[in-house]
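Peroxidase: structure tokens wanted.
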Amino acid sequence: MSPSRSSTWLAPMILCVLLASTANGEPHLSASYYDTTCPSAQHIVQSVMASKVAADDQAIAPAIIRLFFHDCFINGCDGSVLLDKTPSIDSEKDAEPNDSLRGFDVIDEIKSQLEHSCPATVSCADILTLASRDAVALLGGPTWNVQLGRKDSRGADKDAAESDLPSPHANLTDLIGRFAEHGLDAKDMVALSGAHTVGTVRCLHYKDRVDGGESGADIDPAFAKIRREMCQAGGDDAMAPFDEQTPMRFDNAYYKDLVARRGLLTSDQELYGCDGPLDNLVEKYSKDGEAFARDFAKAMVKMGNIPPPPGMPVEVRLKCSMVNTY
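Answer:
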């Protein structure tokens, strides 16, 4: 079916979805949401993700997880981070904290296959939520039932992306506050931070810590020296793994690193070292990978349920990078 023909006959249907979602507020989410309308949805997402991780490189998996986080923390899990800049949309992609996001092409490929199988049915927000779950599982982490039925926003908020995402330099008080704004408690925060057990980060975001400028005393000197030398050799864009032992395996090594004062970012190490309840939780996760996996899965479901603001215009986009035209 050609795109022009598809958009012509689907426009009235999509407009009804847009108006209904705006009028009725946040959608009701359900794990069986697409069982009738698009029963192949989860299989398609999982198939593309598995193919990409196997054929391209494993690093696409943590990139997708990061996309999901950055979407949900700005006006809820609404796919707004996927929108390109237009005269009427100030893209969140152009915000400084998002300048190294990637994986948009993977979401676009999944969307293209779903549009072929189930036109105008599966939202980009749901695709990103499912893809992040599958990214975790493909790296050896837990899996969980994803609640579905999100809609896509018809706008983006670059200013919020500039100011509201947790900073890699944030202290514990600020981190707890940022998560609390979205209904996520301190336990959720510690569990979700475990996503940093995979992936890499640029020297730009950790150089102050390893140079001694941010919590410099709370870092293993040998670890700081290695990372400092990497920055000196490669500059601000030098990439370092969050977890140097198993950088592409979703395990509990991140928490072992925190206990050893080898957290790469200031915001990582802030979770451990205050001799309080969070220290106990970090130590628990460092010793019990299954407990971490269970709590991470629960926290991902909870974060995935963050709704867009009441009254936000939403729809099921035909293309994830742009809003529908009517």
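Residues 3-24 form the longest helix (22 residues). Residues 1-25 have pLDDT under 50 and may be disordered.

Cheers.
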